[in-house]
Amino acid sequence: MTIELNQYNYLPPGLLDCSAKNLHQFIPGPSLIHLPGKKEQALFISILQHGNETVGLDAVQLLLKSYANEGLPRSVSLFIGNVAAARQGLRRLNHQPDYNRMWPSKNPQPALPEAKLMQQVCDIMRDKTTFASIDLHNNTGLNPHYGCINRLDNQFYQLASLFSPTVVYFIRPEGVQSMAFAELCPAVTLECGQVNDQSGVERAFKFLDACMQLAEIPKTALARSAMDLYHTVATVKVPKELSFSFSDSTQDIYFNPELEIYNFREIDRDVRFALTHPDKKVSLQVIDETGASVADKYFDFSNNEIKTRMSFMPSMITSNERVIRQDCLCYLMERFPW
Q: What are the φ/ψ torsions at residue 161 (nearest 5 degrees)?
């Protein structure tokens, strides 16, 4: 099985006014659209890797409409990802892998059709030379707008802090778009708040517009006050064999319904994340950036509770049970002394 990458050297008619759910009426699937601009080196923009995260489409539509009468100041290569999932309003379909785990940088499943597709996109953009790479996402929990980077480098700092002073450095999960494109150019992932957060759309649009105007991305160091840098140290998942809920206390794990309030807050030890079923041996899966299991370092699973064992800062905690199953419960971070 293969997945065809549709390429265009023009903007398909109707694309600027359609919704994510109607994209399939204008493009048949994953597409790479090249639009010429006054500066030849292209800004690569990735949207809808997760079909229910529509901020990228909304922001790109605003961007392209704003230059409809004068031409683009910089060339753009726009990658539109999971059109099939967007049609259903879902992160991904049940038979699909996560598109944003299929990119070639340390990709654990290079034989999958989706991985071959992403390799093709990287090869095309390597030949074109790329100015910068922007991957646009929404998230499901209560989080601020923030940028993510995969390299500790001044140009990456400069690019991410142009979007938000809150920046997260991570090297797991593997196979993400920004990590692959970090081999080609400065690359960032932008987390633009929840779906239908219009302030996130506006912020993403203004950021993209600023990138279009840049002659170059500065290599100079940022002032200390310009960025708060955090380091993702672990990923927290619910084991597949355990049931969980935010509303039903009879499940194996009954999470605190207000858990999302802890996102981007430094929390102390002995904070209760969940109650657990008295007849089950319950734990969470916590994997650090080396791939080691570190659940007992961060959590205490005794007395039918899950409590923090040490101080840390979580991000992207979500109560969306489908997303938790398809991705994770949250990430754990620490302040990074850059």
A: -75, -15
Instruction: Provide CB contacts within 8 A for 190, sequence distance 6+.
Output: 134, 135, 136, 137, 145, 146, 147, 148, 163, 204, 207
The CA radius of gyration of the chain, in Å to the nearest whole number, is 20
Q: Please name the helix (run of DSSP H) or strand (run of DSSP E) that holds residue 297, with its range, or none.
A: helix 295-298
3-state secondary structure of 333: strand
Q: What is the pLDDT of residues 185-231, one digit of tens each?
A: 999 999 999 998 999 999 999 999 999 999 999 999 999 899 999 99
226 φ, ψ (degrees, to nearest 5): -85, -10
Q: Which CATH class is domain 6-226?
A: alpha beta
Structure tokens at 166: 């809150």
Pick from 162, 159, 212: which is nearest to 182 by CA? 159
Q: Note the residue count of the chain.
A: 338
Work out the burial of residue 1: count CB atoms within 10 Å of its CB; fewer than 13 is exposed, 13-18 middle, 19 or more buried.
exposed
* Domain ranges, ordered by start, for the chain: 6-226, 233-335
pTM summary value? 0.95
Residues 234, 314 contacting (CB under 8 angstroms): no
Give me 27's structure tokens: 């493009």
The neighbour count for residue 183, using CB atoms within 10 Å, is 13
Which regions in the chain score pLDDT beneath 50? none
